[in-house]
Amino acid sequence: MAEEQQQNQQNNEIEELKKKMEQCEKTRDEYLDGWKRAKADLINYKKDETQRMEQFFKFSNEQILSEFIAVLDSLEMGLKMMKKDDMEQTGMNIIKGQIEDLLKRYGLEKIKIQAGEIFDPKNQEAVSEEESEKPVNTIIEEISAGYFLNGKVLRPAKIKIAKGQPNENLESKI
Amino acid sequence: MSKILGIDLGTTNSAMAITEGGEPKILENNEGNRTTASIVAVSKSNERLVGLLAKRQGVVNPKNTIFSVKRLIGRKFDDSEVQKDKKWLSYDIRKSTAGGVEVKMGDKWQTPEEISAMILQKLKLDAEAKLGEKIDEAVITVPAYFDDSQRQATKNAGEIAGFKVKRILNEPTAAALAYGMNKQKNEKIVVYDFGGGTFDISILEVGDDTVEVKATGGDTHLGGDDFDKRIIEYLVSEYKSREGVDISGDSLAIQRLKESAERAKHELSTTMETEINLPYITSDANGPKHFLMKLTRAKLEDLVKDFIEKSIELVKEAVTEAPPKGAGLKISDINEIVLVGGQTRMPAIQEAVKKLFGKEAHKGINPDEVVADGAAVQAGILQGDVKDILLLDVTPLTLSIETLGGVATPMIQKNTTVPTAKTQVFSTAADNQTSVEIHIGQGERPMMTDNKTLARFILDGIPPSPRGVPQVEVTFDIDANGILSVSAKDKASGKSQSVKIEATTSLNKEEIEKLKNEAAQHATEDTEKRELIEIKNQAESIVYLAEKSIKDAGEKITAELKDNLNKKIEEVKAVKDGNDKEAIKKVVDELSAHLQKIGEGMYNKKDDNQRTDDAQPSNN
């Protein structure tokens, strides 16, 4: 009888210890998981931060350049209004070229647009359309220049496109 | 486990975020923008475009450019809202066989769910590209007033896009979650959401683990865009009356004016006056015309006064009217106010809200991103990230060690997250110094006497050596419970000493505030004191160095230089214990300049020798 009681007591103790161990293992796993997550988060954060810094250096001038191109627009408009073959206009054109060269060194590049090309919303914005003999959806005129900054569209080129029904060639693309 | 994406699927713009390290983080789309225009189109060349690209061709392709589809999702075609919107939407809509709405895009009729799914799919693809992993699950937000059908339709849109939608979350609840308000039991919160095209008010009540929407209100056709329109109208009419030219029909001029008006509106949130400057806006018979006009904050506020007043009336109604129209509460019952939407950056709106409730609204998180942030917080809770986050303490005040002249040299700066450790090597201030006192203090003042002393101990047994030679490594280590262990070890003898200080982070609030305030009050005088000590220390070092250099150089320098140096050394010694910073600096600089001559003198002598050697005849 006493032996049985002792055995029972031992069993109980073992059960209790097992429970305790399970609890400890659970807590350990939780902690280990939390620790791993924290380490992984730190590593990921570092990676992100490096990337962010790279982007920052590449695009730190974005704000000022995007505001500056509005000044370039005005300059361009002013030039258009000036008399052709005027020495003053030549001088102003040289200044404009100087500014453009400078901005180029900071990664700013004009988006090249040619009349007759098909409108591409990736780097152009169509602000108006006009009846034309040209095929539909082709560029008629550039209204204001667009710019890339280190390959990213800083401002799309604003363009006027030809109006009409989609032509058959284009439709067959899909 | 892959991340769950939190998505704010907005009427005008959408945003997405994930939870990382327990914090929500906005993900940029492929174009590098933090928000994505909620626009889908089939271009004239039959390409499907989503977001900014769709927007860029909207003007020339209005029939096939679908925007504001959120206004239609999950609604019946006969719904009065749908009938109202039908009048101004530029694309065609019709009644579906089930009585719902269908939208014509290209040559196909599609449901609003399918259109929304295209936006969600773009977000999914962009997020996957950004994170470099697949994302299958999402939390999507909807306005609090959305009924079951609208919620189900939004959920369907998510599923069509390839998401398993883990939760459809109310937008105001998301905003409250972003501010961590779900923990503030029994609080009543007003969410004032002024977006680009809609104005929503929600009254929330936080219960046990739930956030209940008590009432909603607002105006589905009032938004920031109306503010922009008002500004443009004003500018056009002012220009007409001043210059006699009507530019309202000139699309290019209006386009330029629109961009400037938006910029002016943003600028006036931080400045009192701005200038709209558009050279060559148009031309007439007399030549080119320019647009140059000042816009003050007061004028802007006057222009949109009625919109703000209307919004405040609608808030009052939603809070005080008896249910179901309102929450049936008193204005004073409201505990917290959250501002959402870009338009709430306007100081006049913030003022009006403050005046109504008599308290400041929460506005720390970017109002364009707060809903997506909250969706990510909910996603984090669902994936277990947020729950498991340990709350880590910070050291409220700087922990320093006293160095030469009583200066408190910071070891661990205030607001550093603990646990953390920092090690720095110090040296002795005098020749043959065999012991150092480690004096540990807490506080922001630069002089140790002004800070709170935590402990001091002595490390002795340092082998006698000239000043600056011994290397004593001091380590400050704070564990997660704020217990600071400081140890000092002499690298040569290996002797070490340490001390443990309990609960450095558990200063009471008043104590911390007091120490911080003192630091702020004495900032100028403290800096001066510190600069004086620094120059005194410099004087001490340079005298020591000069004396040593003279001894080391011996006969290699001229007697004249030696005399000069000794004279300068005496000059420094005479003033170094005084309090005239400038006087000490002057003689220290002079001594320093003379000291350089030792080197020059030695080289010159060496050069002379060299020349003598070279002059010797060669045997070759």
Report the mean per-residue pLDDT of chain B as an integer. Answer: 88
Which percent range fits the helix content of chain B?
Answer: 25-40%
The assigned structural class of chain B equals alpha+beta
Interface with most residues: A-B, 39 and 30 residues
The backbone outline of chain A, from C-alpha atoms, is elongated
Strand content of chain A: 15-25%
Query: What's the end-to-end separation of chain A, in Å?
Result: 89 Å
Count of beta strands of chain A:
6
Low-confidence stretches of chain A: 166-174
Which labels suit this protein?
heterodimer; A: 174 residues; alpha+beta; three-stranded antiparallel β-sheet; three-stranded mixed β-sheet; 4 helices; 58% helix; B: 620 residues; six-stranded mixed β-sheet; four-stranded mixed β-sheet; 15 helices; 38% helix; 25% strand; disordered C terminus
Write the topology of this structure.
The complex is a heterodimer of chains A (174) and B (620).
Chain A: H1 2-59, H2 62-81, H3 87-105, E1 108-110, E2 124-130, E3 139-144, E4 147-149, E5 152-155, E6 157-162, H4 168-171
Parallel strand pairs in A: 2-6
Antiparallel strand pairs in A: 1-4, 3-6, 4-5
Helix pairs in contact in A: 2-3
Chain B: E1 4-8, E2 13-20, E3 23-26, E4 36-37, E5 40-42, E6 48-50, H1 52-55, E7 65-66, H2 80-88, E8 93-95, E9 101-105, E10 108-110, H3 112-131, E11 137-142, H4 148-160, E12 164-170, H5 171-178, E13 188-194, E14 199-206, E15 211-219, H6 224-243, H7 251-267, E16 273-284, E17 287-296, H8 297-303, H9 305-320, E18 336-340, H10 347-357, H11 370-383, E19 399-403, E20 407-412, E21 420-426, E22 436-442, E23 452-459, E24 472-478, E25 484-490, E26 496-501, H12 509-521, H13 523-553, H14 559-575, H15 581-615
